[in-house]
Design brief:
The chain is an alpha/beta fold. Helices cover about 30% and strands about 15% of the residues. The protein has 18 helices and 20 strands. A hairpin with a 2-residue loop joins strand 9 and strand 10 (about 325-330).
Length: about 550
């Protein structure tokens, strides 16, 4: 590098690289892809900085070329480093929006928690405003262990995991499934929708609890007298034991299973079902590093934005409209995805095929700043005061909210997104689990925000309540704080059936009283004026001087 520096110093006419090339930036490509999906677009190619001109010194020509190449490589490396930092820290181009507020989500929560199979009573002037089918995922492993523990506390008899709790959960309200009946079959298409949604309940459970060579490690398999009394553990034709109740869920396509290794991530042996039942704890914390490595239950439920991502270029069907007393039919137009909603719809923006608004000014041209096209053309911004109503209407028509996947296709494709992808399967599901899912400290801020938003809106707990005779337990879902506030504000008839939702106002009052008490104490402390300490010095200001031995003598 010393020789190169000398060669560069000997070049009198060499020009340095432009500063913009060394500090060049470009938009980071969208690298956040859903699990199992391939990128649908090409990544942006970085801009290559230009090479400096050779100097007038002929003796330094070869050195100048080498120096220019090295400096260009250094600049490209510096820019690529900046690009990687932007991809890691920012990810601004791929941030997704999950809008879960509004009456639709509140009606869905009321339908999930209502113990009546027919659902809550909707308002006549509004009706039901949510999704037509709701998908609910039950954490089967957590449920069977929790019921066995509650049963042990009630009866004092210790057993392995039991499927009776899973059966009780599937019988709650409309969780058993089935298409509800229309209370008004002869209603007009313009009337509000009064049909409650269908609930599709699925069970997620590891495969070793469903089928195993050792019957004691299965659900309803321990102890042996209980196994023979329940009679759900049977021998299959392949020579291993299976739980018949859970196996029937597989035949109904309501079971989601996965295999697990015999060892944990730290190489320790995985505990069997009996050890897991012995050391089971409610609200167990489950940690993971990133959303792509989340547990199966969470990864299956967080299905929104699994097809398209924000910022992706697509083609959407723009609805027909009446413009200047002429009907413009529907047509496919280029668009960009602005938001991915939790219900499987997308907010898009069509391509603007008309330019900004200009005013043809004929008088007083001297004081008006002209544009480069014509002198009598003055540019106006996109403010509401400087645009006519027609232009604003044309601009607003370029935005479309809650567009279905049936009206979107990829550029250059004939098939629509809804023809090849199950959009309902890529929505956010409700999850019934008492586990607490948390990201490690190494997780990104976007992933933490996404997980927090999902758990607040879609994860619900449960508890076991003794029956009236006290001989058994019944299942009861427990709403979280966000769901309880929604039920209390919108569907009070459903909220009365749950203590958490019915006492939502009382909790708010307790918080308010706590804050008021804190503020009153703070005001009292502010009124008391503390006495100031005196300003008389307690020791000499100068350094302490000791007498020398000569002066002491």
């Amino acid at each position: 590098f010393l020789g190169l520096a000398v060669a560069m110093a000997l070049a009198p006419g060499m020009e340095t690289l432009p500063r913009t090339a060394l500090a060049g930036r470009w938009q980071a490509p969208a690298r956040e892809l859903p699990r199992g999906a391939a990128p649908l677009g090409l990544a942006a190619v970085p801009r290559q900085p230009g090479l400096g001109r050779a100097g007038t010194a002929a003796a330094a020509g070869a050195s100048l070329a080498l120096c220019s190449a090295i400096r260009a490589a250094l600049a490209a490396g510096r820019v690529s480093g900046r690009r990687s930092r932007r991809d890691r820290n920012g990810r601004l181009a791929v941030h997704r929006h999950y809008y879960v507020t509004g009456p639709g989500w509140a009606d869905e929560v009321a339908r999930i928690f209502d113990p009546r199979p027919e659902g809550p009573e909707w308002q006549r002037n509004l009706g039901y405003r949510g999704r037509p089918r709701l998908r609910l995922l039950i954490d089967g492993e957590d449920l069977v262990h929790s019921y066995a523990k509650a049963k042990y506390e009630l009866t004092g008899k210790w057993t392995g995991p039991l499927t009776a709790g899973l059966e009780s959960a599937l019988r709650f309200g409309a969780w058993r499934g089935g298409v509800p009946e229309d209370p008004q079959p002869d209603r007009s298409p313009e009337d509000p929708q009064m049909v409650p949604p269908e609930i599709l309940a699925f069970v997620a459970m590891p495969a070793d609890l469903v089928e195993n060579l050792n019957p004691s490690n299965l659900c309803d398999g321990f102890p042996e007298d209980l196994r023979s009394e329940i009679g759900r553990v049977v021998m299959s034709d392949e020579g291993y034991f299976v739980n018949s109740f859970i196996w029937r869920l597989q035949e109904q396509r309501r079971l989601i299973t996965w295999g697990r290794s015999e060892r944990l991530w730290n190489a320790k042996p995985r505990p069997n079902a009996l050890l897991s039942q012995k050391y089971y704890k409610e609200k167990n914390v489950v940690g993971f590093a990133k959303l792509e490595a989340s547990p199966v239950v969470l990864g299956q439920a967080m299905g929104a934005s699994g097809v398209l991502r924000v910022g992706q270029e697509v083609e959407a069907l723009k609805k027909g409209r009446l413009v200047a007393d002429k009907w413009l039919p529907s047509k496919w137009m280029p668009a960009k995805v602005l938001a991915v909603n939790y219900d499987g719809t997308f907010d898009i923006q069509f391509e603007m095929d008309f330019g900004p608004f200009h005013e043809n000014k004929k008088t007083n041209l001297r004081g008006a700043p002209p544009v480069s096209l014509k002198r009598n053309m003055r540019f106006w911004g996109f403010g509401a005061d400087s645009m006519p109503a027609k232009f604003r209407m044309m601009q607003e028509l370029n935005y479309a909210q809650a567009v279905s996947a049936d009206d979107i296709r990829l550029p250059g494709m004939v098939d629509r997104i809804g023809d090849s992808v199950d959009i309902e399967g890529n929505q956010d599901w409700f999850v019934c689990s008492s586990r607490q899912f948390e990201l490690y400290a190494s997780g990104t801020s976007y992933a933490k925000k996404r997980l927090t938003t999902f758990t607040q809106k879609f994860q619900l707990g449960f508890r076991w309540v003794p029956t009236t005779d006290g001989s058994d337990l019944r299942f009861e879902p427990v709403p979280n704080e966000t769901m309880a506030l929604s039920l209390r504000a919108v569907h009070n008839d459903v909220a009365r059936q749950f203590a958490e939702a019915a006492s939502a106002d009382e909790q708010d009052r307790e918080k308010l009283q706590k804050y008021q008490l804190f503020m009153s104490k703070y005001e009292e402390d502010m009124r008391e004026i503390k006495e100031r300490q005196g300003d008389t010095p307690s020791r000499p200001a100068g350094p302490r001087v000791e007498k020398s031995p000569v002066d002491a003598a």
